[in-house]
Amino acid sequence: MNAIPSTQGSVIVKAAVLVIAALLLFAPFLFQDVRSLEVAARICVFIVLVASYDLLIGYTGIVSFAHTMFFGFGAYGAAIALKQMGPGWDAVALGAVAGMAVSLVVAVAVGLLSLRVKAIFFAMITLATASVALVLASQLSQFTGGEDGITYRSPDIFKTATKLFVDEEGKVVRIFGVRLNGKLAAYYFVFFTSLAMFLFMLRLVGSPIGTVLKAIRENEARAEAIGYRVVAYRTFVFVIAALLASLAGTVYAIWLKYTGPDTTLSFAIMIDILLMVVIGGMGTMWGAVIGAVLMVMAQYYLRDLMGTAAEATANIPLLPEVLNPDRWLFWLGIIFILLVYFFPKGIAGTIAQKGARA
Amino acid sequence: MTLLSLTNMQTNIGEYAVLHDISLTVPEGGVFVLLGRNGAGKTTTLRSIMGMWRPSPGSVMFRGQDITALHTADIARLGIAFVPENMGIFGGLTVEENLVLATAKGKFDRDRLNRIYRLFPALEKFWTKQAWSLSGGQKQMLSVARAIIEPRDLILIDEPTKGLAPAIVDAMAEAFREISDTTTILLVEQNFEFAKSLGRDMAVIDDGRIAHAGSMADFVADRALQDRLLSLSV
């Protein structure tokens, strides 16, 4: 199915991913607060974003810094359409198609022109292209809202006030205390579209094309010697990853009801994606799930955790200062270093490998 | 009938001229052996045929078609397989995946697969193992198996016996003999005993030029020529 061979370790990894999938599926019922739902939705979108980036870096050996640019194209496509046309599905469809069309054109152009050159030059070209997109998003404020971004309404079915099911008294139906309203519909829209995209990627890497991509990653010249045009395959996977990132951007834009440079195009997100791929394990779709979950959870809850720890150690000298929540990025860095040290092939890759030795 | 012909082929690698003037005709069928000392230009000749290094000037004709300027992948798709000196397998992929890669449509022809199992039983045994975990001989078997998993007109094989145990070399000779019944093999080899047991035609490359070409039987009979061209005592 993917790069992880069938071993005891791979079973553990896949079981962990299944548990995560189950937790995400029932997240609105298990964690009944707004922030938790926000985290769960972000995890769903980032799993797609990280997995699609792993198609590039993990499966094909392409280092790109333009992945958030494609994410941004999808998000801005939906945002501009929803803002201009109003909150309807026609606007969502048009925005998604427009975002994917722009992504397709840019990815084909960048891919065909640049994937022939050495990896470092390609990385630089994508970095430059992404920088241009970021500047354009800030400058073309009449379309993009500039630095402030765009706020808009999503389709009515996703409004919190929308009642999906009502009882005899006209009140919204609750299941396990959870209201069956538009917010819930929005979450499941995010969950199931992300799941569909993830399953598509799993299918892709498990197909003969996935094997070709892995062969190209391992040795381009050998892949060409048995009849595979490396530039064509690399461009193909670059385009597929761009289209998936674009769709993920559209989904995220519908969920957030806001699109700006900081939520879609920023290089901070690009760095996050890179970290998630490395933490989870390159060349394993399952690793993308683990990396995205850990990183997003750390971003949202590490501060809280450190605040609690600082309070608990208030009477001990120095420790409360060290555990000050403002230092959460420092601790995130420490955790990242430790993860890289103890899991050199990422969590999924290393666990699967250890399973193979057992 | 001529299958492959090289005409006045010159190949430079960086600043260095490796092949100065290679003209060669490989007939269809059997094993054609390229002999020569280390650094004579044997591997460069094979890589030039595959388009990995571009000869200029000079031409490479395959079945009457000029393939000099074709992309390596397109040359491979014309029916030329390459088994490089370092085996050229994908260590991170399983034996099965390595062979699937070389199929035209991602599916095995059952008869060809059974033939591979018969020629190289170890590959069936280690079918789901990752290729890096195979022994040197098994890797070479996989590399050759990949070349014959689909029908080919020509297989270029670069020093297949290098570093292999005698028993594996014998098995490899047996396999090449059978393969050459249906497919032409252009074999680069330094192991003269191995080469002469297989070759029908042969050529010697020296300093990037063809120093001698003819039948293997005539070359084996002429010890003085062997000594002069190969510095070998046979």
Automatic annotation (TrEMBL), chain A:
Record-level Gene Ontology MF annotations: branched-chain amino acid transmembrane transporter activity
InterPro entries: ABC_transp_permease, LivM-like
Cell cycle among keywords: no
Key words of the record: Cell membrane, Membrane, Transmembrane, Transmembrane helix
GO CC annotation terms, alphabetical: plasma membrane
Subcellular location: Cell membrane
Membrane topology: Multi-pass membrane protein
Pfam families on file: BPD_transp_2
Transmembrane regions: 12-32, 39-56, 91-113, 119-137, 184-205, 236-255, 267-298, 328-344
Protein name in the entry: ABC transporter permease
Taxonomic lineage: Bacteria, Pseudomonadati, Pseudomonadota, Alphaproteobacteria, Rhodobacterales
From TrEMBL, chain B:
GO molecular function: ATP binding; ATP hydrolysis activity; branched-chain amino acid transmembrane transporter activity
Presence of keyword Transmembrane helix: no
Keyword field contains Transport: yes
Gene3D superfamilies named among the record's database cross-references: P-loop containing nucleotide triphosphate hydrolases
One GO term (biological process): L-amino acid transport
Lineage: superkingdom: Bacteria
Domain ABC transporter residue range list: 4-232
Keywords, comma-separated and alphabetical: Amino-acid transport, ATP-binding, Nucleotide-binding, Transport
Alphabetized SUPFAM superfamilies for the sequence: P-loop containing nucleoside triphosphate hydrolases
One of the Pfam families matching this protein, by short name: ABC_tran
SMART domains associated with the record: AAA
Family: Belongs to the ABC transporter superfamily.
Name of this chain's protein: ABC transporter ATP-binding protein
Organism: Pseudooceanicola atlanticus
